[in-house]
Amino acid sequence: MTSPISDDIKFEGEDANAGNAAPILDLIAAGFLIATAIVVMVASLRLPVPGSALTAPGLLPFLAAASLAAMAVVLGHSALRRRSQTDDETQLFGDLEEQKRMLVLAAMVGAYILALQVLAFQVYFDIAGVPFVLSAFQPVSFIALTAIMHVFWRGSLWTKTAIAAGWTLMLTLTFQKLFNIPLPGGF
Fold first, then answer.
1. Quick one: which of 75, 83, 89 has its CA closest to 36?
2. Cβ burial, residue 37 (10 Å; 0-12/13-18/19+)
3. Which of 21, 53, 58, 151 has the highest local Cβ count within 10 Å?
């Protein structure tokens, strides 16, 4: 009897067609991960140790950060090895067009977060006796989602606005009514 798991099936990652990132991007990521790990390790060592070192509150963060640092070193080593094996400019820096799109997305998300802070307001109202709070979250999220989908998706504008409105409404109802958590963009 054969196994239901075939030898020709293999895990290819989140996007099988994506391949490796550009070596320079992996080096930058490794640098940031190592810096973050060092900060966490130093902060965890500064925590007070009320009992023994084995029960110290900073032990788990220290071990997690050390593991992150080790993985970042492996990532950096892999990137250096790939970088030394190629002279092709597109291989070294990756797809510049895709990187521009990601920068645009990061700028849009940054503008969204800034708008939630700057345009903060709250309006209280009732629908059929059920209290609701309208804050900057709803209009800013609707506009941001529509704009992001308009830049990155080819669907029709009415479809994008319907999806943005649906998501904003579902997030609002879920957090305000189900979890009783106030949304950002208020006071």
1. 75
2. buried
3. 58
132 three-class SS: strand
Tokens (6 digits) for 64: 């997690």
Which one, of 88, 90, 145, 81, lies nearest residue 112 by Cα? 145
Global pTM value: 0.59
Q: Nearest-CA neighbor of 172 among 151, 152, 186?
A: 186
Collect contacts of 56-61 with beta carbons under 8 A, ≥24 apart. none
> What is the tens place of the pLDDT at every residue in 19-41?
677 788 889 999 999 999 999 99
CA distance 110 to 117: 11
E strand residue ranges, the chain: 122-127, 130-135
SS3 168: helix
156 vs 149: CA distance, rounded Å? 10
CA 26 to chain centre: 17
Residue that is written with structure tokens 């830049």 in the block: 151
In which residue ranges of the chain is pLDDT below 50?
Answer: none
